[in-house]
Design brief:
4 strands, alpha+beta, four-stranded mixed β-sheet, Translation Initiation Factor IF3
C-alpha cells in the first residue's frame, strides 16, 4: 500500500500534526510517513511526549514503526488491526 507523506513542518510545525496523522493512519489502515517532525521548534524531532504517543498508537493498532527514537525527525507508521488494550502512563 502506498504511503501517505506528511510534512511535519507545515502549519504550526509542532507535535499535533504527528499525533493526528498517526491516529488517522491507525483508523484508516493507511501507512503514513511523517517527515520534518517539529522542524520549526527550537528542539526539532521527537521528544519524550511525542514518542509516548507514537508507542501508544502503535500498541493499540498493532503497528510497525520505523524511526521511533528521541530526536528523530522522520517516522514511518504501518498500522495493523486495532485492538482493545489497557494503557498506563509511566
Amino acid at each position: 500500500m502506498e504511503l501517505v507523506n506528511i510534512d511535519g513542518s507545515m502549519g504550526e510545525g509542532g507535535g499535533q500534526i504527528l499525533r493526528t496523522a498517526l491516529a488517522l493512519s491507525a483508523i484508516t489502515g493507511k501507512p503514513v510517513r511523517v517527515y520534518n517532525i517539529r522542524a520549526k521548534r527550537s528542539r526539532p524531532g521527537l521528544q519524550h511526549q511525542h514518542l509516548a504517543s507514537v508507542k501508544a498508537l502503535a500498541e493499540l493498532s498493532g503497528a510497525r514503526v520505523e524511526g521511533a527514537a528521541l530526536g528523530s525527525t522522520e517516522i514511518v507508521f504501518y498500522p495493523g488491526k486495532i485492538k482493545a488494550a489497557a494503557l498506563h502512563s509511566t
